[in-house]
Structure formats: C-alpha cells, structure tokens
C-alpha cells in the first residue's frame, strides 16, 4: 500500500462501504513476523498475493517484521542423551521448532544439567559471553570490563513469541505513525484500528522434515475448504463468469495461512478495535455457524480474549490447556504439558465429553490493553525485546506470550508460581524475573477470558503426523467430491502406462512413473522412469534422469543452497538431496539403540556402508542425525552420479564402491547446516589476524564449546601447558597440505576454498583448549566467523513459484495445442497478480505459438493480445481500435502467405520495440488481433467458390447496355445467431434459423449491373449517389477499408477473381502473394518483392470492357436485418451474370463470407442465406479440424405449409428503434471472448444450438406461443454473447411492448436497428395499440412500426433494357 492511499484511509476521506452499501470492516494492518530478513521479503510477497486474490482487503496495510538480529555464537541444543529441563521443553514448543544443537562430545553430555542455573554466577570470570548478547566483554589492563569488537556476523535467534509480539507491536506503531506523517511514535495511531499480527515460528521440523518455506506458507493437500474472501476485491469488473474461473490444474492450492486468514476474516466482522495475535503453526477449522464466532458482544469485551477449542486426549499432555469458568468464561489457569492426572484432578478435562480446552495461540487484546502492551517497549528490562534494545547494546530478552504474559492474568496464578514458570533455555533468570515483575504489576488485574469456537484443531509436528492426517481424512469420506484431501493439487501429470496415485501437490510428472495411494509428491519435477514408494514423501526434487527410485517410508527433499563461493552451474543453484526415513528422529544419538537412519538402526547403516562416524561428525560435535554431514552438495543438476551418491543412503544393501567413493570425495552438509544452526569452529573459515596464543582454562559456563580469548601479550602465561608451549605461534607454521579426504568436516579445502584443515584439526584436537560452557560459542579477537553453507530461503520460494508457473505453462500449452475448450485467461490474470514478469508470460506463449496448429493460431494470437491487455490493467486505453500500422505490415504479409511461424517471429521482433508504455502495449494488442483476423480470413478462404459459365438454354445473356437487376429480401434471425460467425462456426459448429421477409410489401435490397465498352469500373452507392470511377488497380486498393467509398462494391468485384489485383503493392521479404508470381527488387536500403501483373485496363479489355454497378437499399445502415451481406450476394450475382458466370447457392454463401473477411468487418454466413433463399431456412457449417480441411456452409428450407407461414405473418411485427448499431464493435468483443473460452460463452454457445432445435420444431408446428418463448430465450442468449447488446433505450422500448407479445428480440447482433415481435393478438391490432403508446413517450419520435411478411422466393434476377433519359435542368418553382 502506498503512503497516500494509507493516509486517505487513516484520515477517513473514503467511505468504507461494501457492495451492499454496508460498512466494510477489515484489518487495518496485518503484520507477519519472520525469523530472517529473507523470510520477511518472501512472506510479504505471499501476503500481497493474498491481497490480490481477495483474502486480504485491498485497504489493509501489510508489514513483514524480521525478528531482531543479534550477534551471537552457537546456542545449545537439546538431545535425547540427556533429559530436557522444563525450561528447555517449553522453549522447543513455544518456538515450534528445535533449539540449536549442543555441539559437544558425547562424553560431556552427562554433566550438562548440573550447572544450568549458573548463568548469573559468572561475573567473576575473566571473560564472559552472554547467550544471545551482542557484546563480547573482557577485562582491560586495569581489570575493568570493556567492550571488545564483536567478530560474529549478525544472526537470528529464537527470541520467543512474547518478545516478537512486543517488537512487532512497536514496529507496527512506528510504521503507521510514519505513514500518517508523524515524526514521532504516535500511540494514538492505534485507536479505532484493528491490527493483526501473525507469529511465524520459523524453520521447523515438519513434513517434509526440512522446510525453509515454513509450515504456514507451504501448501496443504486440502480441498472443499471454504476460504472466505472479501467481495470488494474483485479485480476484473468486466468478468461475469457463471462459475469460478479455473486458475489451477487440479484443485486450487490451500495454505494453512489461507485457512487462518479466512477464520480471522470471520472474526473481524464483529471485532472491536484492538490487537489480535495469532500463531500460524496449527491447522484450525472453525465452524462458521458457531454462535460465539458471530457474537456481537464477546468480541468487544475489555481485557484479553483467547480463542479455545475442545480437543481429545491426543492433545492433553503435549499442549497448553485452559481451565475455564463455564459461567463467566474467565480463564482460571493455563497448564502447559501437564500430566493427564494433573489435568483430571484440577478440572481441566470434562468428564462428560472427555475433552479439554486447548489454547490455540489466537489472542485478542482490547484497545486499552494494547496500549499497555505497547508501553512495554519503553519499560526496562522489557525494552530489550525490541530491535531498538538490540541496537542500543542491550541483552535481548527472550519472552513468551505464554507463560510470561498470559499467566500473569489468570486467576489461580500466584506471584511466586508466576515467577517460577518455565523460561527460555539460555535466558538469564534474573533478567526474566525482573521483566515478569513488571508484567505482573501491569497486567495482573487485566481480565482474561476464553471464547470457545467449535471446529477442528490439528497440530502436525512431524512427518508421521502429516501422513496420518492425510490418510485419516481420506478414509473418513470416500466420496471424492466431499473429501477434504486433494489428490491432485495444481499439478501437470502426463505419465505413460499406469495412473499416478497418491497426493500430488504443485508438481510436474511425466515419463513412466509409479506411485502408491500413500505417496506424497510435493513441488517436484519427475521425468523418465521413476517410482516413489509407499508412505514416502518427495519434496522439491528436480529429476530429469532416466531412473529415480525412492523406497517405502522415505523422505527425500531437495534443498537449494546459498551459492556464495560455490562453483555451480549458471542455470541452477547448488543443492543437496536430503534422504531420510519418515520415523527418523533428528535429535537422537547414533549410539542410542532406538535411533534410526533411513528406516534402520545406525549400527546396521554403518556396517553395510562402511562409513565411520568420524566421516560424519567432527571432533566435539554431538553425534546426532541432525549434525551428521551425510548429504553431498550437488553443483550441477545434470550430474546423475551425484544424485546416486545421495540416494544410496536409502538402500539397505552395501553401496557400490564407485558410489561410496564419490560420496566420500564429495563436500557434504548436514540438516543443521541447511537451517542455519551450524557455526562450530571447524564449520567456519578462520582468519588469523595475530599470532595464535594460549587458551585460557576459565569456564564461562556449561553446555557448549568455547574458544576463549587469545591474548597477544600473554605468550608466557602461567596457564599455558607444556604441550601448548611447543606449538607454533604463527599461522604459517601450520602445515596446510591436502589430507586426501575432502569431507567438509575435516577437508583440507572446505567449500569456501580455504585451506584450513590442519589449523582446525590442531585446535579442535587439543581437548585442553576446548571446554564445555553454558554460554554461546565465542571466537577470539584473532578469528572471525563466516556463515557456513545454508539453505537458500529465497531460492526455495522461487522454486515453488517457478514450479507453479511451469505447471500453468504446460497446462496452457496442452489447452492451446489440443484445442481444448478451457480459458487460459485466469492463468494470465494470476500471473499478473503474482507479479510474473510480462516478458516471461509472453515468452511462454511465443514458444507455444511456434508449434501451434493452424486451426488454433487465431486463438493464440488473441491470447497474446489478452495477456498484454491484462498486464496493462485498463491503463492504456480501449482495446478495440485500428490495427493497420505499417510497422506490422511485414508480419501481416507472412500470415497472408500462410507462413504462420515466420509471422509469429516477426511479431515478436516488432513487439519488443513497443513495450515502452501502456498505450503502446494496447496498440500492439490490437495488431495481434489484426493478425488473428488474417488467420481467420485464411481459414474462411478454404470455402470453395467456383464460378461456372451460364447455360444459354436457361439464362438470357443480356446485351452490354442492358441492366442485370437482382432483388433480395432482408432476413430476420430467429435462433442460433453468432454460431455462424468465424471462428465460432468452424471451431464449434454452427446452426442458424432465419426467415426472408418483405417490408411494406417489397424486397428491400437491389443490385444493378451493366457492361461498358470502356475498360473502367463505375460504382454508385444508391440511385443518386456519386459515381466512383476506377481506372487503375490502385483505385481498388481501399477495398479493405469499410468506410472507404464503394468498398463493398469493390470487394465483391475482386472476389469474383476475374482480375489480378496485386499491381503496385510491395511485400517485403515475401516471394509470393496468393500464389501469384513475384520478382525481387533490391535497393541499397531494402529488399522488396513486387507482385507482377497486368494493369486494370489490360485485364478489363481482355474481359471485353468494364462495367457500371449500382446498389440500393431502402433500409438504414445498421438495421440488423443483414443488409450488407445480402447486398453483397446481390452484387456478386449481378456482376457474375453480366460477365456470363454464376455461383451455385452454396458457393455464393461462401463468396459473401469471403467478402466480409476482405472488408475486415468479419461477419458470418446466416445473412446471405436469409436473403438468397426464401421462406424459413436452417443453415449449418462444418468444422475446420486441420490444415487440409475446408469450410462448407449448407442451408435448407424448412417444410412449412402456406397456412402456417400466413399464421406467423399475422403475428409478426417489426419495430425500428430509431437507433442504428455497428456490428463490428460487438463482433470484435464476441470473437475476443470466444477465443478466451470463458465458461459463460461456451455454455451459451451450446444453448444457442439447443434453442435453434426447439425453435425449428415450433416453426414447423406453427406454435406461436412457443415461437415467442424461443425468440425471447434467443435474445437473452445474444445478450450474454455480446456485452452492450441492449442499451437503455432498447430496454425502455421492450418494457413498452412486452405485455403485447409472446417474445421479442433485436434483429442481428443487437445494440439498435430493428426489433422483432411475436404478438399475442393479430399484428394489425397490436400495431395500432403500440403506436398510441409510443406516440406519448418523449424521445421516441423516431421509433416506427413496420408491416412485414415472409418472402417465399428469395433472390430474383431480372433484365432491364437500358433507356437513355434526356437530362432536363430542374425548373424553378415559385409559390
């Protein structure tokens, strides 16, 4: 949201009303916490996408807030080899992850619990390093503590949900204050605001075990989930779909964050102003009909409200449970991971239902309480919860929402019990106690209540939970339409042989694949011969190899790594393939009998593989699965051998020597490396700035490794051992030769290319120099720590989005190349919403265009035009407009010569010059549609049009001066209109019913032609119109400009094919045009191809002279009665007749269809059928399936008696609306929408055909009422086809006449012209009544009612002898 738009919302300058005129209630701001800055950027993109999709209001201000970065060493990690204190257990679940590893040898782990409380007793030590403190203190020469330069790079830390919440509230207030123009922190900015904070715990142990995108922003295979979206966020106001457009391949992706936001969208409707905080780690489904959810009072209570839900025994002892006063809703106590006996004995569990109330992590602070919470940022020691405290040099306080804040409010909590609540492992008790005293004093009297919501609660902690959740819900409902588990979520599957089973999420599967019902494939591309076993999860894998096999109960995750200082392929980031078992515990020691690696115990794994523990763990590192460097770094995604060196871990048999050899020689990483937890000394690049001195024996604490201060001036320190005194004091004295083992743990050249093996080994191997301590891992002043290789968060999000884009692309290609009736427009709109670059979208369509069959080329050109228009987003002007810029003529000529491939390439080259502004992009979009019109013309030109000589025994050949007169009736369309229009007619197949009519007793169209001795062409529009004399081919070349004088007459003459009209036209780089020979002319600047043909004079002389042509119609232009096409039929017939030729009826239909394409006005074939044949007719058209097909239009008269025809005459009226319409404007829009294949237009096209069938039966029976009903139904269908077909004036006329009719419709496309009425009474009576009504309405003076009747004869030819009239000057008449 930009600054200005937020100011408007804040200042109240815009009314917050929804579409119903009611006040719209939305979140004023939504913030999401992030463990790292990279996460913050990606989370913000994800929230912006949801804002575009309508889950979040467009008016909501979005913020992503990384947790405070601190300078830190390594944090301790809990392992199963020692018991976890209550504090440690609390921290693990509070942050919904694992505390970073305890890097120590096995032999030292047994002593870790003894000194856990000594954090505050180390003030006398010579040097100390507080856990998560950004300052390294040592003593100066006077013995005073001084601040030394911190050598660590900034690192994120698990700050705790409470610290994150306080920091976030401050940041939100700070940003909103700045956006409102304040230069200070304005506490009042939060008044009357609804603020939502989403607490994201970070990188978790979660299926697929290592997930850098976090739980909340990872797809869940769910469907039939009601995601509540805001109706006011509709981006495309002109889109009127009958159902939700299909934007995904398979089921639409669902994320836990979407479900959570949907739940909170329901809550915010009744919420008072305040601050809502929500954990994102659980999967919660609210019952939308729950009365508490819709309560107008519960959500406006003072104090704190906590959403609770009833859960069963599975959750009792693993989560926080609330004891609630049933009458008042007050929360009396919150018990965290207490034994079931305690919960039962203290009234937490309902005896009737055997359920307890779980703390869901969704909390609401009223406005007053929020203000109190905000003041904590300025209250010591809680001020150190914010980034300001870190920037000020304070020690970061690790605080939780529970128990540090909420427990202070519960009734049963005492001050002593509150102070003794669990605290974060590594925190300083004295500091936490001080903070808790402040919180107790501030919040003790704050009411805290439960709002219990009915629904379902899930917490999926590990892969086993994930798979069980899927299987349980699949088995619960076998009806796929009602099942909540999606088996195919936005994935493209085109595999051979066996059907693909299991859960497929955002993946591309091709080749010969095999999977099982319990298989999960996630964010992957699999090709070749692949197989994924039962209960196995494959995540993020890109396998383009011939074979890829995964065994049962495995998790295989491909993680993109940060590419700094790693040589890798240009196209791909370095990566690692994590191969583990579903039941593997990352934190168990390898020598624990219950510990497993890839579904077997460690002893079996080491024995069968020949791998030794020393190859997996460096000295001093706890030998647990989390820290085992098992996984080779892959720098080339085409290197199948490196994939083999990763996948052997799953095999129980011994790996081949070549595979294990490649594994040993590779550089490898661990899970701890990937998630950013590893920075042991041997994991880092060390830069020795001064001489290496002796290490102090002083202990700072207990629990982690510490390298103590290397004092440059203490070479003779008394603490030096004899072994140290013999070691070299200079880094150059260390031998840095290659040891031959390039394992990253002890390689002579690590992945950064630094020869540090012996330096590291000599330091680490000297156990006297490395001691366990409670504080963080500390480097000396002479060393600087640099990041080890980690997983690339941005690359993981990018990969997921790229997969989604590729799935879209492959589906679009499948739709377009196969000619499937499905719209790709929703995909394009999704790309635009998701900020996919326009160039990338166009490149995808360009690639498809080069292999697209001819019959779908027009659609593809329209789709590219659509893409440009979508990305312009109504900012470049109207899309309909001219498309004859000379810069595109070269491209057009390729299409005219049927070289579509070169045409596309030429358009691509020209397009690049125009993508400079929205206006230019719209102009390009018009020209793509212009190219599409050429493609339509090329297909229409496949219609056979063969001129045959007249039979002298039947036809009278007139003399040169005699007029050939052709008269034709106009037509009324009764059903099936628009299905006769190319490309609809040849892609879908068309059926049309119409009737020829006379108006006021005569035919309305006439064409007159006579031969001339002179080699000229004279065209006259109307009996008294100006003559247009054509003496050269250039005079005919404006035939394709509809508004040029005589363009219709010129097109009809050229369509006969009696002359070659290529004279004088240059076609650059084209060797032939329409099959005519051409010669190439080369100049200094260009090469052109000039079509060579005779002049017009020469060609007319060879025909025996020229001709004079006159056309006339007594109806206005735009009548809707098909006058232009019917007139074209008359002109072609008369011209051909004058030269001694004729067309069959069918070929005449075709010839007029071609004329419409030559004029670039488009149009279908039903008009000429209506005028050429008399009575009621049914017309149809064949489909165009391939390049060698031809379009064939056929028509037949309906078998109707004279009595039925007369009956219809008695109930038929025409009403001229007084307004003309231009069919081209409507036609462009219909073709555009047809090519877009919207669901609405596809269904409506089918309905038009069905109505034609019903109308045919009614006509044959003479059922007037049914005819009227079908006509009205037909009119509604035409309105659905063409937006704007019924302007307000037309609606007003319909309202006047509808009570007198069985049905009505505008003739033709709509918009104006004539109106067809099927009257209830005799038409003469109805006419009189309507005239009286219309006469009384102001503005309807031009509305006129016409008598009409069915014409049974159709086209008629007559010969009129030429008479030269004496020209007499007009007489002056005076009164």
- Name the shape in a single word: elongated
pLDDT averaged residue by residue: 79
Catalogue the unreliable spans: 1-15, 71-156, 231-243, 679-787, 1063-1089, 1365-1369, 1371-1375
Task: Tell me roughly what share of residues is in helical segments.
Answer: 25-40%
Structural class designation: alpha/beta
First and last CA, distance: 77 Å
Cα-based radius of gyration, to the nearest Å:
41 Å
- How many helix segments? 36
Strand content: 15-25%
- Report the strand count: 55
Largest pleated sheet: 9 strands, mixed
Give structural attributes.
single chain, 1375 residues, alpha/beta, nine-stranded mixed β-sheet, eight-stranded mixed β-sheet, 30% helix, disordered N terminus, disordered C terminus
How would you describe what is shown here?
The chain has 36 helices and 55 strands. The protein is α/β, with parallel strands linked by helices. The strands form 14 sheets. Strands 1, 2, 7, 10, 12, 13, 14, 15 and 16 form a nine-stranded mixed β-sheet that branches. An eight-stranded mixed β-sheet has the order 18-20-22-25-28-29-32-33. Helix 22 packs antiparallel against helix 23 and helix 24 packs antiparallel against helix 29. The longest helix has 26 residues. The N terminus and C terminus are likely disordered.
SSE topology:
Blueprint: H1 3-11, E1 29-34, H2 37-53, E2 61-66, E3 69-71, H3 86-94, E4 136-139, E5 145-148, E6 154-156, H4 161-179, E7 194-199, E8 204-206, E9 209-211, H5 256-268, E10 274-279, E11 283-286, E12 304-311, E13 320-324, E14 331-336, H6 340-345, E15 356-366, H7 367-375, H8 387-391, H9 415-419, H10 429-443, E16 448-452, E17 455-458, H11 463-476, E18 488-489, E19 492-495, E20 503-505, E21 508-514, E22 520-522, E23 525-526, E24 529-532, E25 537-539, E26 542-543, E27 547-550, E28 554-560, E29 575-581, E30 596-597, E31 600-601, H12 602-609, E32 631-634, H13 640-647, H14 657-665, E33 668-669, H15 671-674, E34 704-706, H16 722-725, H17 757-765, E35 771-773, H18 793-818, H19 825-833, H20 838-849, H21 857-872, H22 889-896, H23 900-911, H24 918-940, E36 948-949, E37 963-968, E38 970-975, H25 984-988, E39 991-999, E40 1005-1011, E41 1017-1021, E42 1027-1030, H26 1047-1055, E43 1066-1068, E44 1078-1082, E45 1087-1091, H27 1096-1102, E46 1107-1113, H28 1123-1138, E47 1141-1142, H29 1145-1158, H30 1166-1172, E48 1176-1181, E49 1193-1197, H31 1202-1209, ...
Parallel strand pairs: 1-2, 1-7, 7-10, 12-16, 18-20, 19-21, 20-22, 21-23, 21-24, 22-25, 23-26, 24-27, 25-28, 41-46
Antiparallel strand pairs: 3-6, 4-5, 8-9, 10-15, 11-17, 12-15, 13-14, 13-15, 28-29, 29-32, 30-31, 32-33, 34-35, 36-47, 37-40, 37-55, 38-39, 39-48, 39-54, 40-46, 41-42, 43-45, 44-45, 48-49, 50-52, 50-53, 51-52
Helix pairs in contact: 13-14, 19-21, 20-21, 21-24, 22-23, 22-24, 24-29, 26-28, 26-29, 28-29, 28-30, 33-34
């Amino acid at each position: 949201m930009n600054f200005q738009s937020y100011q408007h919302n804040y200042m109240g300058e815009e009314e917050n009303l929804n579409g119903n005129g009611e006040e719209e209630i939305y979140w004023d701001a939504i913030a999401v916490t992030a463990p790292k800055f990279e996460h913050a950027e990606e989370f913000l993109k994800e929230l912006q996408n949801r804002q575009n999709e309508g889950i979040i209001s467009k008016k909501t201000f979005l913020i992503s807030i990384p947790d405070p970065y601190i300078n830190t060493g390594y944090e301790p990690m809990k392992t199963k080899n020692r018991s976890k204190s209550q504090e440690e257990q609390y921290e693990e679940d509070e942050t919904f992850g694992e505390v970073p590893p305890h890097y120590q040898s096995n032999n030292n782990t047994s002593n870790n619990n003894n000194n856990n409380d000594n954090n505050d007793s180390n003030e006398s030590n010579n040097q100390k390093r507080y856990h998560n403190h950004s300052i390294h203190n040592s003593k100066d020469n006077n013995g005073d503590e001084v601040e030394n330069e911190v050598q660590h790079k900034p690192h994120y830390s698990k700050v705790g949900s409470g610290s994150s919440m306080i920091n976030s509230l401050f940041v939100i207030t700070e940003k909103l204050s700045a956006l409102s123009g304040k230069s200070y922190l304005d506490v009042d900015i939060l008044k009357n605001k609804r603020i939502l904070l989403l607490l994201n715990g970070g990188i978790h142990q979660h299926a697929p075990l290592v997930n850098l995108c976090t739980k909340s922003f990872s797809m869940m295979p769910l469907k039939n989930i009601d995601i509540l979206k805001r109706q006011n966020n509709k981006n495309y106001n002109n889109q009127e779909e009958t159902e939700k457009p299909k934007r995904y391949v398979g089921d639409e992706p669902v994320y836990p964050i979407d479900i959570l936001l949907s739940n909170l969208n329901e809550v915010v409707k009744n919420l008072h102003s305040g601050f809502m905080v929500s954990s994102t780690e659980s999967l919660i489904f609210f019952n939308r009909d729950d009365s508490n959810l819709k309560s107008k009072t519960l959500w406006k209570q003072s104090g704190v409200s906590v959403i609770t839900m009833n859960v069963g025994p599975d959750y009792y002892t693993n989560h926080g449970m609330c004891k609630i006063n049933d009458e008042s809703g007050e929360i009396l106590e919150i018990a965290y991971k207490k034994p079931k006996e305690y919960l039962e004995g203290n009234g937490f569990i309902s005896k009737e239902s055997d359920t307890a109330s779980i703390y869901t992590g969704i909390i609401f602070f009223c406005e007053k309480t929020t203000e109190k919470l905000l003041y904590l940022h300025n209250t010591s020691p809680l001020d150190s919860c914010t980034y300001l405290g870190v920037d000020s040099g304070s020690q970061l306080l690790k605080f939780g929402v529970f128990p540090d804040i909420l427990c202070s409010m519960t009734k049963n909590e005492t001050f002593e019990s509150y102070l003794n609540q669990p605290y974060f492992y590594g925190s300083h008790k004295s500091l936490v106690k001080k903070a808790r005293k402040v919180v107790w004093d501030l919040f003790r009297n704050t009411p805290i209540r439960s709002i219990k919501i009915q629904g379902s609660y899930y917490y999926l902690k590990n892969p086993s939970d994930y798979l069980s959740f899927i299987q349980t819900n699949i088995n619960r409902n076998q009806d796929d339409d009602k099942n909540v588990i999606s088996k195919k979520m936005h994935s493209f599957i085109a595999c051979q042989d066996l059907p693909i089973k299991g859960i497929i999420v955002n993946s591309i599967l091709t080749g010969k694949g095999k999977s099982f019902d319990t298989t999960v494939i996630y964010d992957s591309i699999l090709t070749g011969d692949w197989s994924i076993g039962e209960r196995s999860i494959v995540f993020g894998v890109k396998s383009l190899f011939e074979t890829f096999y995964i065994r049962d109960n495995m998790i295989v995750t491909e993680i993109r790594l940060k590419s700094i200082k790693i040589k890798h392929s240009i196209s791909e980031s370095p990566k690692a393939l994590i191969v583990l078992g579903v039941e593997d515990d990352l934190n168990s020691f390898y020598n624990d009998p219950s510990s497993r690696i890839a579904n077997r115990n460690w002893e079996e794994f080491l024995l069968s593989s020949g791998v030794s523990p020393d190859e997996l763990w460096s000295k001093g590192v706890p030998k647990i699965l989390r820290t085992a460097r098992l996984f080779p770094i892959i720098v080339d995604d085409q290197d199948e051998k490196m994939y083999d060196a990763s996948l052997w871990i799953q095999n129980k048999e011994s790996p081949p020597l070549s595979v294990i050899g490649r594994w040993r020689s590779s550089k490898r990483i661990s899970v701890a490396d990937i998630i950013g937890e590893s920075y042991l000394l041997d994991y880092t690049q060390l830069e020795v700035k001064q001489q290496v001195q002796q290490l102090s024996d002083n202990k700072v604490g207990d629990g982690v490794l510490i390298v103590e201060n290397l004092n440059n001036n203490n070479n003779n320190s008394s603490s030096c051992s004899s072994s140290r005194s013999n070691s070299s004091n200079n880094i150059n004295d260390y031998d840095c030769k290659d040891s031959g083992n390039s394992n990253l743990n002890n390689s002579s050249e690590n992945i950064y290319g630094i020869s540090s093996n012996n330096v590291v080994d000599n330091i680490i191997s000297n156990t006297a120099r490395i001691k366990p301590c409670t504080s963080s891992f500390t480097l000396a002043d002479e060393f600087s720590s640099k990041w080890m290789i980690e997983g690339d968060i941005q690359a993981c999000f990018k990969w997921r989005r790229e997969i989604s884009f590729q799935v879209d692309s492959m589906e679009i290609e499948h739709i377009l190349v196969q000619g499937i009736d499905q719209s790709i427009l929703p995909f394009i709109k999704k790309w635009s919403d998701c900020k996919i670059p326009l160039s990338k979208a166009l490149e995808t369509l360009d690639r498809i265009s080069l292999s697209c069959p001819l019959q779908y080329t027009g659609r593809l050109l329209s789709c590219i035009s659509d893409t440009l228009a979508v990305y312009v987003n109504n900012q470049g002007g109207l899309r309909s407009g001219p498309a004859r810029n000379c810069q595109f003529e070269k491209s057009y000529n390729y299409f005219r010569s049927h070289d579509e491939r070169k045409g596309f390439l030429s358009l691509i080259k020209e397009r690049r010059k125009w993508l400079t502004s929205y206006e230019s992009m719209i102009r390009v979009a018009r020209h793509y549609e212009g190219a599409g019109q050429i493609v339509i013309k090329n297909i229409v030109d496949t219609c056979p049009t063969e001129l045959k000589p007249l039979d002298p025994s039947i036809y009278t050949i007139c003399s040169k001066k005699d007029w050939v007169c052709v008269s034709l009736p106009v037509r009324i369309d009764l059903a099936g209109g628009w299905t006769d229009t190319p490309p609809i007619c040849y892609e879908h197949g068309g059926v049309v019913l119409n009737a020829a009519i006379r108006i006021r007793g005569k035919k309305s169209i006439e064409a007159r032609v006579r031969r001339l001795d002179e080699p000229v062409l004279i065209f006259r529009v109307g009996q008294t119109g100006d003559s247009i004399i054509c003496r050269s081919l250039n005079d005919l070349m404006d035939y394709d400009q509809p508004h040029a004088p005589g363009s219709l007459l010129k097109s009809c003459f050229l369509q006969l094919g009696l002359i070659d009209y290529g004279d004088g036209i240059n076609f650059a780089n084209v060797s032939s045009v329409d099959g005519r020979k051409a010669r190439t002319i080369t100049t200094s600047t260009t090469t052109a191809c000039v079509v060579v043909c005779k002049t017009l004079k020469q060609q007319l002389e060879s025909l025996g002279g020229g001709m004079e042509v006159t056309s006339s119609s007594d109806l206005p232009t735009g009548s809707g009665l098909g006058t232009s096409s019917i007139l074209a039929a008359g002109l072609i017939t008369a011209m051909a007749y004058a030269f001694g030729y004729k067309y069959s009826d069918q070929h005449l239909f075709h010839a007029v269809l071609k004329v419409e394409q030559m004029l670039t006005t488009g149009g279908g074939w039903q008009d000429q059928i209506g005028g050429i044949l008399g009575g009621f007719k049914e017309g149809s058209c064949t489909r165009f399936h391939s390049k060698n097909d031809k379009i064939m239009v056929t028509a037949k008269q309906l078998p109707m008696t004279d009595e039925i025809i007369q009956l219809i005459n008695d109930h038929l009226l025409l009403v001229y609306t007084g307004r003309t319409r231009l069919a081209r404007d409507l036609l462009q829009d219909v073709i555009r929408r047809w090519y877009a294949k919207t669901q609405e237009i596809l269904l409506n096209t089918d309905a038009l055909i069905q109505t034609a069938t019903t109308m045919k039966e009614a006509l044959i029976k003479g059922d007037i009422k049914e005819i009227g009903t079908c006509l009205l139904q037909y009119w509604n269908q035409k309105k659905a086809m063409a937006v704007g077909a019924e302007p307000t004036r037309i609606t007003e006329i319909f309202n006047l006449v509808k009570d007198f009719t069985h049905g009505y419709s505008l003739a033709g496309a709509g918009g104006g012209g004539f109106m067809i009425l099927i009257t209830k009474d005799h038409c003469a009576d109805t006419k009189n009544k309507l005239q009286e009504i219309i006469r009384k309405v102001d503005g309807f003076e031009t509305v006129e009612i016409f008598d009409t009747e069915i014409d049974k004869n159709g086209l008629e030819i007559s010969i009129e002898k030429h008479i030269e009239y004496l020209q007499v000057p007009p007489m002056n008449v005076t009164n």
